Amino acid sequence: MRVLLVAGKGGVGKTTLAAATALAAARDRGRTLLVSTDPAHSLTDVLGMTGDAGRVGEWRVAAEPVAVPDAPGDLDVLQIDTRARLDSAWTTLRGTLGGLLDGAGVDPLVAEEIAAVPGVDDVLALLEVGSYADGYDVLVVDCAPTAETLRLLALPEALDRLVSRGFPMDRRIARLLGPAGMSPSTVEAIDALERLARELTAVRDLVTGPHASVRLVTTPERVVLAETERARTTLAMLGHHVDGVVVNRVAVGENWPAAISERHRDMLVAARDRFADLPVRFAPYADAEPVGVEALLELADVVLGGDDPLDLGAVRASTEVRADGDRWFLDVSVPGAHLDDLDIAVTADGDLVVDLGPHRRVIALPPVLRRCEVSGASLDLTETGQVLRVHFDRDLDHWSASVRS
Fold first, then answer.
1. pLDDT 10s per residue in the chain (405 long)?
2. How far is CA 347 from CA 28, 64, 71, 365, in A?
3. Closest CA to 128 of 68, 198, 203, 190
4. Do residues 324 and 299 share a domain?
5. Number of domains forming the structure of the chain
6. Both 344 and 195 in a single domain?
7. 273, 396: one domain
8. For labelling, which of 109, 254, 291, 405 has a CA lying 20 to 30 Å from the CA of 327?
């Protein structure tokens, strides 16, 4: 299954580009599901799925995917109502979870952190996306604005880490088998939380796997381009493949004042400089708003130029381990970052923590690196772009212990 996340700052036209791309994918690649995780749903408006007197009818928020009329191929649309799911599924659990976890012997501070995990509506949106993945060839996600999207994509790993901290495996076994045991309600809460973490991990694998990518939408404005560049850096650090950038609403042609056309041309050049290692496409500012299947397909053809709607051709980076004698190096993709923006640490469990501003990635180190110590870090250029190269030297105590055993 191919997965494409379309992301960008609010107001740049990502919903329009997501709908156009999904229509092209349904035409060229097979059965497609277009999902909105943005609370301000407007997919049905863009697709022209309106009822009487121009009002959007029952498609605005649907419990199940709905077929898009007149779409080429099979295209369904789903606008997730996380508020309804939050009201029905989470409120009661959140109100009691802290006490149950405390009763299970979890550190009170960790229990409180788990019970009050932010972005619960985002959690439910991710689970909903994952639940509909089967049965489709393509999944196109119209993401919430950039900040919410970055939080959304970091949630699976964050919750999984919290569960691991709160319930180490030896404690889970001891509590279940120990003489005191647990109350049935506590066991049920633990099972529910662990099941949630497993489901979110599966969604994380779906959106970061080799068949998934993120496409960034921006506009020819200096401030928006700067935010888009920061988002690209953060997404790459979190392990997401960014396949390209679309600069939307570019004033081209003779109908625009010369000053505006010149400024947009300059910003398009600036975008290509900022994202020199990525395909950069642009969509012209249209005389009429692209609404409906026909107009959106025309937009897709202009942007894509006949190329694969799900792959603009960017080179896929990966987290790699390299060896050089008694030293090892771990590469993490961080295009556009400065070394001062990054912090690294190794946890007591042997995981590498990479912080980029408010964003964090925890990388499980392979066994050979768990027997080493971090000796430094540098920013290096590779064939796939800029990477944070973490240097490891042998920890002689660990290697000596390994030899003796």
1. 899 999 999 889 999 999 999 999 999 999 999 988 766 668 888 998 865 434 444 444 555 788 999 999 999 998 876 555 545 544 445 544 555 555 555 555 555 454 444 455 556 666 777 777 788 999 999 987 766 677 666 666 666 666 666 555 544 554 454 445 556 666 666 676 677 777 777 877 888 888 999 999 999 999 999 999 999 999 999 888 999 999 999 998 788 899 999 999 999 999 999 999 999 999 999 888 899 999 999 999 999 998 999 999 898 887 888 898 889 999 999 999 999 999 999 887 788 999 998 888 888 889 889 888 899 999 999 888 899 999 999 876 655 544 444
2. 46, 42, 50, 10
3. 203
4. no
5. 2
6. no
7. no
8. 405
